[in-house]
Amino acid sequence: MKLTWRFILKNIVPIVAAAITLGGTIFVYTYFKPDVRYEEGAYYRSGDRAITSLKLQNYGHADAEEIRVTISFPDTILDVSTSDEGIPFSVKSGGKGTKAVSGIVQRLVPDESVYLYVAVKNPEGPIPGSYEKFVADKGVVYKGGIGGRGPPFGWLNLTLVVLFNLVSIILLILVIRPYVRSVKLFRTTHDRVLAELKRGEEVRKYTLAEIERLRSQVPPPTPRPDSSEREPAKGDGDPNHALDTEHRPKLTSSDLD
Asked: pTM of the prediction?
């Protein structure tokens, strides 16, 4: 199959267009939405208090509204505050003197972040593991979504990677295809040459066999007699014959008359 422009327009272009459409849809869907993420901080110990933080950040490209945060600890909460007075944390339930608190941050614009500081009673000895993960499952929710732990995976980067890999695969196919065709043509030519050589060898063997067969059917030629072996003429080698010829009287013309 030849890789013609008609084949490219009929098969490859629709695939690329579908991939671009899918990537564009994912990009638009994720780009123009709020995306609130949280990160639990380490503890700072001072006197009878162990202070930790909860970072909230809007990684999306739209405002995140009514961000409800629910956290709980193994020991008593002594204080709750935020890093920015312009972004207050309104406590709705629990709080100081309890082991859990639930409240709301009204708004975070794109790329805006705020730290929620919580002071709890300082435990004796090392900080237990139960103090580390104090945000419950679905402990951060907002209008239109649920907060996730840690920075988001870059959907834009994923889209670009997918598109790059797709284009790379198509270009690789376009580059490798002529090479594959050349290899296939070489193998076909090689096999054809070997077949012709084999056929020529068979013809040569057949010709030699026919020559030998024809030679076996032709009778051998009769040898011609040698002059030294010729049969002697009459009187050759006979001494009496020679003497009779020598003493025989010669006839003359008068004798004939």
From this structure: 0.54
